[in-house]
Each structure stands twice: as C-alpha cells, then as structure tokens.
User: Fold this.
Amino acid sequence: MQNEFEMYMVGYFSYFMGLQVNQLDKGIFISQIKYVQEMLKKFNMEDSKPMSTSMMTNCKLSKEDNCPPLN
Assistant:
C-alpha cells in the first residue's frame, strides 16, 4: 500500500475504515466480513441460512453488459 498511497508510520494493518484488509504477496484483499457479522448479530440473524446470490457470479459488470438477463 505504501507504493500506491502516501502514508506515514506505515506498517501492516488489518482494519481500515471498517474494512478488513489482508496484505499478501499476490495483492491486497479487502472484505466486509466483520461488518456483516456485526449486522447479523445486531438483528439476531446469526443462525440464518445463507442464500445464493440472484446474479450470475461469472459475469463481469460493465456499462456494456453482454450477460443474458436474469429470470
């Protein structure tokens, strides 16, 4: 991250502005797992069953969307 952004007192960090940050050799990965877990706990939904997403997972999003429409 130091190469991309101007930073002071640089070191590895795991949380930044509510986002979980994992710095690996392959790149920087950002997720909101902790935020989602806190929301599930807040609304007593920790034991809820997960549901699959309603959109195609292998399709890249862009302005020129060539994916078939969802039913």
